[in-house]
Design goal:
With 121 residues, the protein is α+β, with helices and mostly antiparallel strands. The chain has 2 helices and 4 strands, in the order E-H-E-E-E-H.
């Protein structure tokens, strides 16, 4: 599972941030590594440098499940760390639901019923 991190000009992208993102995503999404090929992380500060209060830090996570359309979640928080953790929680729930539905679909698929052909004499 690849993790790609993108930030806007108001958030400093350094190795410490990248390590925090990788640790948070790996701890929450480790069980989906067989299903997800890549996760894109988009971090932004919606107010920029004008305001420092409120929930202006945004984390958008976009997961690319193998063979399916991308899945995205967004979290707003007061800090970048809270936004990342909250978005990881949301993505974990969303992927659990998606994988569960796929598993149910395969389990509930009707088995082919074999019918004996009529004998021709």
């Amino acid at each position: 599972m690849q993790i790609q991190i993108n930030t806007d000009r108001h958030i400093k992208a350094d190795e410490r941030l990248a390590e925090f993102v990788r640790d948070a995503l790996n701890s929450k999404l480790n069980r989906f590594t067989d299903h997800v090929t890549r996760i894109e992380v988009h971090l932004s500060d919606e107010n920029g440098s004008t305001k420092h209060e409120g929930h202006d830090k945004r984390c958008l996570l976009e997961a690319r499940p193998e063979g399916l359309d991308p899945v995205a979640v967004t979290e707003h928080a007061a800090t970048v760390g809270q936004a990342i953790t909250g978005a990881a929680d949301k993505l974990q729930r969303k992927l659990s639901s998606l994988v569960g539905k796929l598993r149910d679909k395969h389990v509930r698929a009707p088995n082919a019923v074999y019918v004996e052909p009529d004998e021709v004499n």
